[in-house]
Amino acid sequence: MQSASNPKIILILGSAPDVVRSRAWPRMPFHSIVAINNAWRVRDDWDYLVHAGDFPQSAMPAPYLVHGRRVHSAADYVPAQNAYGGFVYAGATMSITTAYWALHKLQPDVMAFLGCDMTYDQNGPTHFYGYGNRDPLRPDVTLQSLEAKTGRLLVSAARQGCVCVNLSHLESSRLVFPRVDVGRLRDWSMFDVQLRLAGLLQRVDNATVSRAETMEKSLGYYFPSGEYWRHLNQIDGSELKNLDGLWLAAVGQGDAGWACGPCDI
Fold first, then answer.
1. Crossing angle for the helix pair 146-159 and 190-203, nearest 10 degrees?
2. Exposure of 101 in the CB half-sphere (CA atoms within 13 A)
3. Which terminus, N or C, of the chain has the lesser number of Cβ atoms within 10 Å?
């Protein structure tokens, strides 16, 4: 936590085409900027790069660009995601993995996302650098519902005192976080954060969250190595689909107020 008037706001940058809007933004109000994979190329003032284990060395920033910054991979984000239940329940895609790492490591008051919408149905390039791998849409038992996984993240963060918001101007998003305009976000005080946090928590169905968490414990799909793909014979996809349904219900997915076009909370 920062002072009573200045919340600790973390900007998380993905690679959707919309991410280039951030190039025109001043550094304030962001306490830290976290880039995912290729997003280190979007701005030159990033603080952390979190990349997948198979991210090619050729795509990494040059050593002189890393000076004074930190680069993190599986050795760092696997323990962080395990702290929130593990990859099977949290969802094994880098936008979500990076968010749990930031929540665990940086202890933010606000996590603001741009370029993490995980939608690929718009015309033109899929990523800010052209056409890339649509990783979140791969056939993966942990990613049957990206909305459910981001709903679980929303709840996990809120319980920790952190508000998740989406800065995107894209028409659609798989993130179920409230949309916020970056200009308004700059004016937020800790009072504003607490007010919005209370509103989010009020909208969460705690009874359904409890059912989802009980189901997670009962299923026992926890693999500390993070290599859940080595245990697919132990994972029932239909059970995970039912679990996703609980998380969707818990955050009221389908209510236009959660994942609508640009709007403030």
1. 130
2. 25
3. N
